[in-house]
Design brief:
This protein is mostly beta strands and 426 residues long. It contains three helices and 19 strands.
Length: 426
């Protein structure tokens, strides 16, 4: 028992460190704006089901999309989940194509009960990704070439990310009603570089602009779930969660200067802005139904008023978001003694999202589908979760916006154990 606890504490520490500092290096031009590309929320079980989770209750995993679900964690149990994913992005403007890929640690989650019907959970998950690399070379043979300015190389690069740490609790108010609350800490840094180097390197001044944005702050998220059990294990669960819009501490710095091959520097401007950033809250509503230990189907809807957001250094490019998510899970025979395949949890889902990014008056849309499996471990309620997700980003109409195809696979280990039972025999 002590060895288990020591091992788990060590794993928690290692994955927490990686989750805070690591960044997925997927090169996407859509990460150039605002806070970067928003990362999908939810555990890998949720991701395999299209991202649903607001109306889901699971006693063996952490469903952090609705803190009211924490009350379903079994008495005397402990749940720990960590995962990593690999992503590949294929970018196209119709004539040119580019792809990038990277693997990274995704999340660390844990949950445990305080008393029967009162659970606690915590974790760290990605919030946004600001990585991109764009390079363009213009010479005398290109249509964009201007003999007055001559040839040049332009470089646009971004790095950094925002993460979310949460801790929360859920309680059963009655047999059919539960409520919960999350305290969310959002923090991180976004850095961007824009540089133009002229071909006539030794006789002209070149231009460099750097931007840095730091954001940190806390908001609250509230959740409610209504549970309606029926005969023979059938159920219907409905859930709603709402997070508050919040002003976050932020520091924005923008420096532009000219430089030459001889290190001569002429600062054009240096702007520092400590105006607080405002990020909107999110409303989620979800419904799930099915039969316990057999199948689950669900639907989630969410929206955020990002048009009201205030992000220092980002003028415009913001639109209200809406998301529609559908998912199913099927288990042929969870307690089969003879067939491992029958104990596997099979999942599928789809999603349609209006993202918060607006370019040239057109909102970027993301659509996709996902598949997943949960592979149970022998003589345990622990399992390994795997998912595959395909998502496509493009303009909401006929436009010249780039099309981005994103392929993601992920694996997580969801550990479940009874830690607070005193064993009579070893």
């Amino acid at each position: 028992m002590q060895n288990k606890r020591a091992s788990l504490i060590f794993i928690c520490t290692i994955f927490f460190s990686f989750s805070v500092s690591a960044q997925k290096l997927i090169n996407s031009p859509y990460s150039r704006f605002n806070l970067g590309s928003m990362e999908p929320a939810g555990s890998f079980r949720s991701t395999g089901m299209g991202g649903i989770g607001t109306g889901i209750r699971d006693n063996t995993s952490v469903c952090f999309l609705n803190p009211a679900s924490y009350s379903s964690i079994d008495t005397n149990s402990f749940v720990f989940d960590f995962g990593l994913d690999y992503g590949l992005s294929y970018l196209s403007d119709g004539s040119n194509h580019y792809y990038s890929n990277d693997m990274n640690f995704d999340h660390i989650l844990l949950g445990f009960p305080v008393i029967k019907g009162l659970g606690v959970a915590a974790g760290i998950i990605p919030f946004s990704n600001g990585y991109y690399r764009i390079k363009e070379t213009i010479n005398s043979a290109d249509p964009e070439y201007d003999p007055i300015t001559g040839g040049y190389i332009s470089v646009h690069a971004g790095e950094g990310s925002l993460s979310k740490f949460f801790v929360g609790s859920g309680i059963n108010i009655t047999k059919y009603l539960s409520a919960g609350i999350n305290l969310n800490l959002i923090f991180g840094n976004i850095r961007r570089l824009n540089e133009i180097d002229f071909t006539d390197y030794y006789n002209v001044f070149h231009n460099n602009t750097t931007e840095k944005l730091h954001i940190a702050g806390i908001n609250l998220e509230y959740g409610v779930q209504v549970i309606a059990p029926f005969k023979d294990g059938y159920f219907i669960n409905a859930g709603v969660s709402l997070s508050s819009g919040t002003h976050y501490k932020s520091v924005y710095e923008n420096i532009a200067y000219l430089f030459s091959a001889y290190s001569t520097i002429d600062t054009l401007y240096h702007i520092t802005d400590s105006t607080k950033a405002y990020l909107p809250g999110t409303m989620r509503a979800g419904l799930s139904f099915g039969k316990k230990n057999k199948f689950t189907a669900g639907f989630d809807y969410s929206e955020s008023k990002w048009s009201k957001a205030v992000i220092p250094g980002s003028a415009g490019y913001l639109g209200n978001t809406r998301s529609y998510r559908f998912g199913v899970e099927y288990i042929p025979d969870k307690f089969s003694n003879y067939s491992f395949v029958k104990r596997v949890e099979y999942r599928a889902g789809a999603h349609i999202d209006d993202t918060y990014l607006v370019i040239d008056g057109e909102q970027v849309r993301e659509t996709g589908f996902s598949l997943g499996v949960g592979m149970p471990m022998r003589r345990s309620l622990s399992r390994a979760n795997f998912f595959f997700d395909y998502s496509k980003r493009s303009g909401s109409g006929n436009s010249s916006l780039h099309t981005e195809d994103i392929f993601t696979v992920g694996a997580s280990l969801n550990l479940y154990d009874f830690w607070f039972l005193k064993r009579k025999y070893d």
